Amino acid sequence: MNLASLAPLAVVLPILGAALTFMLIRHSRAQRAVSIALLSLTLLLECLLLASVWDGGTFAVTLGGWLPPWGIVLVVDQFSSLMLVVSSAVSLAVLVYATGQGMADGDQDAPVSIFHPTYLILVAGVSNAFLSGDLFNLYVGFEILLTASYVLMTLGGTGPRIRAGVTYVVVSVVSSVLFLISIAMVYGATGTITMADLAIKLGELDQGTRTLLHVMLLVAFGIKAAVFPLSFWLPDSYPTAPAPVTAVFAGLLTKVGVYAMVRTETLLFPGDSLNTPLMVAALLTMVVGILGALAQSDIKRLLSFTLVSHIGYMVFGLAMSSVAGLGAAVFYVVHHITIQTSLFLVTGLIERRGGSSSVDRLGGLAKLSPLLALLFFVPAMNLAGIPPFSGFLGKVGLMQAGVELGTPLAYVLVIGGVLTSLLTLLAVARVWNRAFWRRPSDAEHPDPVLLATPAARATGPGAKANTVTLLPRTMVGSTIGLVVLGIGLTVFAGPLFMVSDQAAHDMLDRSSYIQAVLGEDTVVPMVLTAGGGK
């Protein structure tokens, strides 16, 4: 049996888990066990899918007996299976972290136990988006994960979360409506929404119609991916959510938008007709995002701005339309999902141990908790691109591809990428110096807990109030696991780059994808660049 035929289970298993955990909503231990077990099983399945396409090849699974282009098709290739594995690994780590936090806070019997079924629905939506072989099913995947994210963002019902949730909902609805209108226009112009079929039929349209459809889809996905100037919503939305929710949002949701951009740009609109605007957007995303990060004193908001900034690296790799550039972008997406999620989880631990996520109130954390200092330092240096970490390797790959392209704009992007990396180092170094290295008494608005001596915490007046909250082992363990995974990306960078480059080659070639869906005898049209070359 072809393992790719099991691809629908990547969506079905989380949905089944959501149903079971909803029925077990009053049995917190069983609910936690079911959600972790089914997500672990989903990750194992996706690892098998990745192994089945590790050396190349693309497989399509049709649902309901309806053959494409009329039926729903799920497509498994190196890119989609790699994204599935990384997203589920990160999601599992965050789920364990959230479970530990709930147990430590004693809220397992509270209404927030709706977290587990909602979280699994989010995972199902992400998996469906990565596997989708047609635009409407991609839209369904987006709506599943966005609907779940609305609930997760507003857990607790506090004022700031509700306000941020309203902004997030409005922006998401606007992008979804634009995406739906784009799908309707694509169907009206071509009579199909199956992406493999569109790869052939879109080339038959006149250039004006094709460009209009191209721009509309780019704008819809650009909002979801937080590409400048469509990224205004993200820094105000993510930091207000609970730490596990913020972590999974930062790691995954924008990357689904990036995935959609990569898939449609390479499959539906190959060539370089809009590469120049994409490069400009990539440069502005990098620079404006990191400048925003430097102005922040709250670690969550700082990381939200760096999240926006580093989306620019991925768009830069995509805009080069070369195997080297796209391969480096695929590697960087995998790296960034892991590292950005790790940093948000560590920030949750900082907030729990130090009483705040504002660097104005923190100090002395390196002495108070050396392990916490190490857990922040490693992914922070990785994000900044310090050798030999995977962030450095991914950025070097992008810079090399830019130099190989050799255009003036590509050189400007290379310089912008180096500058952004240096400013990222400056941003995380400021957090390190102020939150971990300086004395608590030097903080602008120090937390009384950090100022108290160990003896005062134990015996002084209000000792209970002065006691620093110990970090639950489950939360620390899941964070350590994710940090180790980030280090693993460095250790196994060679095989990962090999798979990324092969995935990039197959996406730019298009033939394996189109023929896997429509049949091996399908004639794949040549890719024409803006200059008319192949």
Number of helices, where a helix is a run of at least 4 consecutive DSSP H or I residues: 23
Helix % is over 70%
Indicate the proportion of strand residues: under 5%
Q: Cα-atom Rg, whole angstroms?
A: 23 Å
- Give the overall pLDDT as a whole number: 86
| Span of the ends, CA to CA | 38 Å
Strand order of the largest sheet: 1-2
Shape annotation: globular
Given helix and strand content, the structural type is mainly alpha
Number of beta-strand segments = 2
What would the keywords be for this entry?
534 residues, mainly alpha, two-stranded antiparallel ribbon, 2 strands, 72% helix, disordered C terminus
Detailed description of the structure:
- By secondary structure, the chain is an all-alpha fold.
- The chain has a domain of 219 residues.
- The protein is 72% helix and 1% strand.
- It is built from 23 helices and two strands.
- Strands 1-2 form a two-stranded antiparallel ribbon.
- The protein is globular.
- The two termini are 38 Å apart.
- The C terminus is likely disordered.
